[in-house]
Write a structure and sequence with these properties.
alpha/beta; three-stranded antiparallel sheet; 10 helices; 52% helix; 12% strand; elongated
């Protein structure tokens, strides 16, 4: 009896999970499903007519979906779920395309069926998002951004050629005025993970440099290129420049403020007289090169990771 009740409970939970997942996918109400209500009625009608005419000529099925929010789900996973549920494109040809925009999350994606990946590869879909749609979205022009994106997709599919893009569009706010290095288009979760890893390492060495008498100044200059380059991955060139300036100012100021504290003077004296001092669980020793450090407990080690993603998602 208990086994039967457990099976029924498990089945109920699984069914609820399936229904919950399915409920996140909206109904396919037409070639333009504007659930976020960001498109004007004339634009919805115009897009629907153009997409219908294109489908009648070529068989390619293109659908536009706007949703207010992704509710914490990734744009890639949501687009894949919608595409699969709606079964876009013809069976056997897989010639469907989904253009999805989530304004509250400031995320968008062009999901391409297998049959059209050769005509509209990830790199080209990414260019449409980055150079055509993003600049208009940044100004709040959703009508113009979605309409221009759809027109670019239709141009590619109908002519087989990529439309000409303004290579500088959408990049002005992501570039440093002195370097032209783009800020990465990276989801917030990946920024947090990479940021924790990068700033955890260089931050640790920065703190050690501030706390260490003598050899700390060597770490100050040694870490300058790391503070100049590594933060670009997380905050872009402009943000990295600000962090570098902050580092160049805060490090020496903090070190000078600590210079007259009792424990700092004591550690400095120990290095001169004994050649070794212990600060915060770390043992520091002086040497011919000016100083070195090692942990008095367990050894210090660092690790790394890798991530990958498609080139057809974007944010603004």
């Amino acid at each position: 009896m208990r086994t039967a009740l457990r099976l029924i409970l498990l089945a109920t939970i699984l069914l609820a999970a399936i229904l919950s997942a399915a409920s996140n996918v909206p109904y396919l109400t037409g070639r333009v499903t504007d659930n976020a209500e960001i498109l004007s009625k004339p634009v919805r009608q115009s897009l629907a007519e153009r997409l219908k005419a294109h489908e009648e000529r070529t068989g390619n099925q293109i659908v536009v979906l706007t949703t207010p929010s992704l509710e914490g789900e990734s744009i890639e996973g949501y687009a894949e779920a919608v595409f699969k549920e709606w079964k876009l494109g013809q069976k056997g040809k897989d010639n469907g395309i989904l253009v999805i925009v989530a304004p509250q999350d400031r995320r968008m994606r062009i999901e391409v069926g297998y049959g059209l990946e050769g005509t509209l590869p990830d790199s080209l879909a990414g260019s449409i998002i980055r150079d055509v749609m993003t600049p208009k979205f940044k100004t709040g022009d959703y009508n113009g951004g979605i309409e221009a994106g759809v027109n670019a997709i239709l141009t590619v599919l109908e002519t087989g050629k990529a439309p000409s893009f303004d290579s500088n569009a959408g990049k002005e706010t992501k570039k440093s005025f002195f370097s032209g290095i783009e800020a990465p288009d990276m989801p917030i979760t990946e920024r947090i993970l990479f940021g924790a890893f990068i700033f955890g390492i260089i931050g640790l060495f920065t703190v050690i440099g501030i706390l260490t008498p003598g050899a700390g100044w060597f770490l100050y200059f040694f870490l300058i290129p790391f503070w100049a380059m590594f933060p670009i991955i997380i905050v872009g060139a402009s943000g990295a420049l600000k962090l570098l300036i902050a580092y160049l100012i805060v490090f020496p100021v903090a070190k000078l403020l600590l210079k007259n504290t009792d424990w700092y003077i004591k550690a400095q004296k120990a290095l001169r007289t004994k050649g070794q001092a212990s600060i915060g669980g770390f043992s520091f020793s002086s040497g011919s090169s000016g100083g070195s450090w090692s942990s008095s407990s367990s050894g210090f080690s660092g690790g790394g990771g890798s991530s990958g993603g498609g080139g057809a998602s974007g944010s603004w």
